[in-house]
Amino acid sequence: MNSRGVEKAKQFYKKVFGWGEKKSPMGEGQGDYTEFQLSGESISGGMEMNPMVPKEVPSYWMVYFGVADVDKAHQKAVSLGGKEMLPPQDFPGGRFSILSDPQGAAFGLMITNPS
User: Fold this and answer.
1) In what order do the strands lie in the sheet with 83-91?
2) Which of 4, 78, 108, 109: disulfide with 64, CB 3.0–4.6 Å?
3) Which of 92, 55, 88 is nearest to 71 (CA)?
4) pTM for the full predicted model
């Protein structure tokens, strides 16, 4: 989830679904990434939307597919007609990328580091 006002959004989803949370720093000046957890297992996550994102873009959820190799899956998707939106890159919890399918639907690929 990318949210404008992530703290309020987190409280809403925690009350609706009974989720717990685990915070991880994303890097200098970037705030925290929150993993929403159910029974101690991370099931989704959220963060404050970057202020550089145009104000017309509302808060949103995005699906990420877990893969064994982000770079390999990313290249395969591109070779099959997907469009790269954000190239594979590391983050403190693992590696991810963002693409769109040939019809324009955005999705992410991700692998997390074992804790």
Assistant:
1) 64-66, 106-112, 94-100, 83-91
2) 108
3) 88
4) 0.73
